[in-house]
Amino acid sequence: MVQRKARFMLMLHLFVSAGFLVHVCAASPVLMPTDQELIQQAKQYTKLSGRILSGDVAESDAQILEAIHLRSDEASRSIAMLKKALSAENLMDRDAAIGGLHVSLMTAQPNPDLLYGHLLRQFNRLKCDSPDSDCTSRRYWPWLYEAEAAVIAYERTGQRRFLDLVLDAYENLLTLRGGVIGREDEIRRRVLNTWGSMMPDRSKTGRAGRFYTNELTTAGTVVMPAALALRALQRTSGLSNEDEARIERLAATMLEALNEFEDDFRPLPDHDGGLYLMPYESRVEPLNHSHIVGRAYLLLHEITGDEHSLARATQLCNTFRAACEELPDKAWAWPYRYEPDRGVVELSEPIWKGATTLRLPKLAEEMQVVFTRGDMQCIARTFVNHVWLGDDRFSKYVSDAGRKRPETLAEGVRRYEYRDNGYGLLIWIFLDEYDSRIRNIVEDAVSYRPDLIARGWFGLPQGVLAYAYRLADVDDDELTHEPEPSSILVNGNVDAIIPRIMSRKHRIKMIEAMGDQELRQTALSGAPSSTLLYGYLDDQFGHRFEDDIRLRRMNRDSWSDVAALLRATLVGYERTGESRFADLFIRQFDRLYSCYSSLENQQEFASTLRISLPALQFAGIIANAPDATPQHRDAARRIATTIDGMVSRIKIDGTNSVTGAEWASSRKEESW
After folding, report:
1. SS3 sequence, 609-659?
2. pLDDT for 9
3. Torsion 534-539-545-550 (CA) sign
4. Lowest model confidence (mean pLDDT) among 118-122, 327-331, 355-359, 518-522
5. Domain spans of the chain?
6. What is the mean pLDDT of the chain?
7. How far is 456 from 417, CA to CA, in rounded Å?
């Protein structure tokens, strides 16, 4: 817990200082719960979740906090943290209060009104201006998660408005089927009465440009949550004749839509299984895609008694069981695609895809089809033992079996700037009934990993689904943590506890400022805060740029980022005199020079000067440091000589980012 607080507060300081999230509009007065006002309230909640992490808070936010909290004690706690942040006399105290406010908001008891307002706004976006609109390809995946969130909210609260929201939206989606709009599938060359999307060009199709096709995944994402809503409605006591007729009518449309893809199904007799093919790629559908359809078929079997639906779902379940391998700790691992003819190389589905995959066996276990509770405990063990790496860190894959290099979830989010990767983690909360630790792990990730979950529960549809799942009662003892102002420095003698969160240039450049601020605060707790800075720098040099340097693929932004890290290392040495900072600087400069010397264009000005200035400054500081070791002095001379050779290959003029005057000033710091 101490490590988590220290790391979270340092992360938060970086986010607040750099303005990591976009500032948004100010708060509005307390709202009345009409539909339109609930939409506005949900928008304010989502924006406030982002503004808190950017440090953009105001006194008027107290009105929003008062309105969105269900419990008065939680509202009071959040408002108190807001006041602390606004009245803080220094940046460290302010960051601690901002951190407390963020945690308080993320751990507050879920509010059904907030959820309803958000879902109402999202479902309004499903409406298209015309049947040919490409909005369908951008809306079906969010619908999958958010429509299920509405069904869960109905089951938790008994409020019929959530169920009607889904069923009414599904009625609108029926108008976008290929048979209704008369649109021909460009691969199958016929009209299917199901849903389709515009697909990007695929070389295997022999087509140039985008094309329209009806695909299994699109149909599954539309049908599955609607079937979930039908089942919930069917289980309601005292159904009217109108409701019963609606169930029968809508279930028929769902069966028709899924059965359109029978030609794409291939049985696997070896294990009484089967899989779907992607006709436009001639490959097997990934497991997470086919499992959406498998869930829909299981639900439709329960609703209608259709035996074909049960047979298809059972075959998909059997295939997943065959695809899984049991690891030595009794956890399960599985691939992204199960292709027995090609062989399985990596049992490592990405966890944001695996979160969708695991939902079929969970539903099947509930319905006593193929999977047992013991099987689900194995999948829960996969999360606890392999996805979760401890200390609020997570793997990118369900396991590293067969992979050449493990990779963390933070790398997956940062490398592709793809936030779905982080938010997919939250769906694993549905396994908490098999291991109670999972819920706490997921909720802590929302509170303490804003680099993965950047805008709170409503930031992406997966978060909305997890928020709805939390509508069950929250225990008072689990509501919130309040970081103290000095928590960032409490455990200063622990190395390398800072997460790998920096990727963009404007964020990484804040390291230097962060180092200054930390080192000024050592009196706050007496702890050696320089260790936190060293741990972060060592981690960033050793991991963030490891592949880039080793594979000689540094680009302009990468050079700028490592230059910022070099400057921060220089600050650490200059202000503490600790030799480990000098060792780190020398070691990383040598690695960077080996990368630079392999560049085809060694006259590239920016790459050279970005690392040359901090390197020369370091050489001058070592030369004038009375306690510098002979090894450090020799290394500093070598660095200065190396820089002279690098600079001799370039021409300095006024058009470059570093001026000749700055270069000359740095050059004078040499004293030999």
Report:
1. HHHHHHHHHHHHHHHHCCCCCHHHHHHHHHHHHHHHHHHCCCCCCCCCCCC
2. 53
3. positive
4. 518-522
5. 2-106, 503-667
6. 78
7. 17
User: Which residue has better confidence, 210 or 291?
Assistant: 291
What is residue 642's predicted lDDT score, i.e. its pLDDT? 83
DSSP 547: H
* CA distances from residue 85 to 11, 78, 99, 100, 638 in whole angstroms, order as listed: 17, 11, 9, 9, 48
Mean local confidence (pLDDT), 473-477: 36
Q: Are 254 and 265 in contact (CB under 8 A)?
A: no
Structural element, H or E, at residue 664: helix 660-667
| DSSP notation for 99-136 | HHHHHHHHTSPP-HHHHHHHHHHHHHTT--SSTT-THH
pLDDT digits 0-9 by tens, 552-579: 555 655 666 777 788 888 878 887 888 8
pLDDT digits (tens, 9 = 90+) for 205-252: 555 567 888 999 999 999 999 999 999 999 998 899 999 999 999 999
Annotate 249-295 with DSSP letters as a single string: HHHHHHHHHHHTTGGGEEEEGGGTEEEEEETTTTEEPPHHHHHHHHH
The tokens for 647 are 């600079």
Pairing of strands 196-199, 265-268: unpaired
The span from the CA of 61 to the CA of 107, in Å, is: 18
Distances (CA, A) of 253 to 170, 292, 443: 11, 17, 38
Query: CA dist 397 to 71, 229, 424, 641, Å?
Result: 38, 31, 12, 45
How far is it between the farthest Cα atoms of the chain? 95
Count, residues in the chain: 672
Q: Tell me what pLDDT residue 373 has.
A: 96
* 158, burial (CB in 10 Å: exposed 0-12, middle 13-18, buried 19+): exposed
Which helix (H) or strand (E) segment holds residue 332: the answer is: strand 332-333
| b/e code 251-269 from CB counts within 10 Å (16+ = b) | bebbbebbbbbeeebeeee
CA gap 543, 553 in Å, rounded: 15
**Contact at 8 Å (CB) between 468 and 156?**
yes
DSSP secondary structure of 472-524: S---GGGS-----TTGGGTTTT--S-S-----SHHHHTTHHHHHHHHHHTGGG
User: Cβ distance 604 to 654 under 8 Å?
Assistant: no
Backbone angles phi, psi at 185, to 5 degrees: -70, 120
166, 246 contact by CB (below 8 A): no
Q: Which long-range contacts (CB under 8 A, 24 or more apart) does 123-128 make?
A: 123/147, 123/165, 123/169, 126/169, 126/172, 126/173, 127/172, 128/176
> What does the pLDDT look like over 178-188, one tens digit per residue?
999 999 998 89
Residue pair 222/216 in contact (Cβ under 8 Å)? The answer is no
Give the count of beta carbons closer than 10 Å to the beta carbon of residue 355.
27
Range scoring the smallest mean pLDDT among 229-233, 317-321, 485-489? 485-489
Specify the amino acid at residue 605.
F
The 3-state secondary structure of 211-249 reads EEEECHHHHHHHHHHHHHHHHHHHCCCCCCHHHHHHHHH
Give the residue carrying structure tokens 């201006």.
129
